[in-house]
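ok so for the tutorial part 2 we go from a plain amino acid sequence to predicted structure tokens. step 1 is just haveing the sequence, like this:
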Amino acid sequence: VRLVESGGGLVQAGGSLRLSCAASGRTARLYAMGWFRQAPGKEREFVAAITYWSGTRTVYADSVKGRFTISRDNAKNTVYLQMSSLKPEETAVYFCAAPAKQTMSSQIRDYDYWGQGTQVTVSS
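step 2 — the prediction. this is what the tokens look like for a chain of 124 residues:
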């Protein structure tokens, strides 16, 4: 499975941005996909996850609930992360990832496939 993120950029605090993650390869095996982020000098952290095919179950980090929305378009093999009310401290490289197993987790160790990341910079 190959994952390619896009949509990052520079946005002012309070602004919005939509990230995309296009999946290719053996996408029929995907159970879920997630978004993570890594700020400079900090550990990578979970942002949100969504089931990929059956149903629509989502989970969010507490820090983004009510501001970020994860969604998918199976016809395009793409998962999105709509981010609003962005804060400068959310400046980070955002990664999408997918587990090889049938799990939807917030733990990095459960994810096997990773994209290269897309930079999001929030100016104050």
